[in-house]
Amino acid sequence: MNENVLQTIRSGMDGFSKGQKRIAAFILDNYDRAAFMTAARLGETASVSESTVVRFAAQLGYDGYPEMQKALQELIRGKLTSIQRIQVSRDQMSGADILGSVMQRDMNSIHNVIDRLDRDAFSCAVDKLLGAKHIYILGVRSSSFLAGYLNFYMHLIFKNVTLVQSSAAGEIYEQLAHIGKGDVLVGICFPRYSKMAIHAVEYASRKGGDVVAITDSALSPLYQMASVSLLAPCDMISFVDSMAAPLSLLNALILAVGQQRRDDLSATLADMEQVWSRYSIFGKDDE
Questions:
Q1: pTM confidence score
Q2: Which domains does the chain have, with CATH numbers?
Q3: 253 vs 67, more confident
């Protein structure tokens, strides 16, 4: 659904039943709470049955209540503080098998990317990287390790790669001073969206650089500024952002680019193997 879930609710209010109007009114006034309620809990709060809540989600055009709940969560997750995240996730994690629960959610996020990622957009991102005069990679805060991971492998494939360091806001713009037409900025940004990353992407786009956004949804500030966006959910697990799906997406992007540059990559790795061996970069089992 392209429309904001709250806008969808407001526009359909006249067609709702009495019970559905109670659900709608509660969500509109308390969407930050409703986003993390089960269908049963939402029904109890709105004084309707769980089945009424499920039918309400279907009437809005969602495949089921979990899909509507996900839309609400995407709407608010960038606005929640760390303390609020802990509070809203307490019921979800309390008494649960945390190891199994977290890993299952990571698996679900990766499956979600497999099912929903736009393959044409993925191919377009690969082509832009292959044709770029210069590649810049940017990620700040919790996205910085994703940027570093991508940079490590892109350096093995290309000669024209710069990891934009974010230790100080002003330095970002200095590192992007020469970006222009024909260059590509890979901007990696997830909730809570860093203003530093948003402004840097805006700057690069204004200078004529192509932006490949790695972000979570069409609601992301990077989505509107990007030439192409690759969307992967960054699941909110209490105060932690799970990057399992974005990291898996980056693996696919690296391999897709590497396949197109396999001869150059093979030559580079052959040279590096000699260097690694000569300087004993990796430990060896002498036995």
A1: 0.75
A2: 5-79 (1.10.10.10), 113-278 (3.40.50.10490)
A3: 253
